Amino acid sequence: STALGFAICMPCWAVQRAVTISKNTVLNIANKAVDYTGATETVGSSENINVDIALREKDSINLLATIIHRREERKNRKGRTIRKPRHVEIGLTLSYERPDAFDSDGVAIECSPICEAGSDAPVNPIVDRQDSNAQFDVFTGKTLIAREQMLQSLRTIRDYYDNDPVGPTSTSANEAPPVKHVLAIYGVNLPTEIGSVYRPNERVEQSGHVRQHMTRDRQATFASPGFHEIVDGFIMENSKTPQICSDGTAVIRSGDGTVPYFSLQQPKAWRNDCDVSVEELEGVAHREILADKRFHKIFLNFVTID
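Given the sequence above, the corresponding structure tokens read:
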């Protein structure tokens, strides 16, 4: 019995290919061991291993190739040859680490978390309709992008968003614009995406093409009814979703089908610094608002001098 240990770091598709090659190597070693011990016949080996499922569930795979062979023994009194079964087991453990996001110089790419769950995020547990053993954890958009090794996207966020002198995550998000009057007009109470549910892809490589590591979990749903819903893997707010506005008021609202309500109502936080008027149009979608007659009327009244 021989144990072989490997520690590698590579993309998932390469891991799958490495496992296939390693498994064949184990079988070859086992067969050579059989030959060395004087075997005359190999009659079985271990089952095929589903590498895709193994990579989804954990970060290491244990392979055990068991070769059952028979060795020629002496003849008995009746002249028959006695073959006594022998077993040769070759074990291999293949483990891998998910690659981090590093530049070519080995320096880690640091940027904002992107789509980080806030204190008002849904707390209703998520389950999978087809996989009762599935467990779900909260992670940020940065984690998702890093796992897919989309390094240029991380660099873009770092260089043009985080390093923007206007401060999109600080100054420009919290401080009022340098004007006296603000009119915010937006649609509300349409189902609006506020997050997504992902699971590892069932296949990391197929037909010579690398596929993304994570895929949207279309079978995900909340364990019990609540103020949010999951549709085709998208976590949606709706017209029954409680919200806490930036000025501290509590409302029951959702966004305009594109922008979540929490972002739409941000101008309410500026009321101590300038004159802010907010007009919420029921059931008006993000793009369609420009063709809505209510929008035209509100806007003309705002810019027209009596």
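The helical segments are 12-36, 51-57, 141-147, 151-162, 171-174, 261-264, 293-303. Try to locate this feature in the token string yourself.
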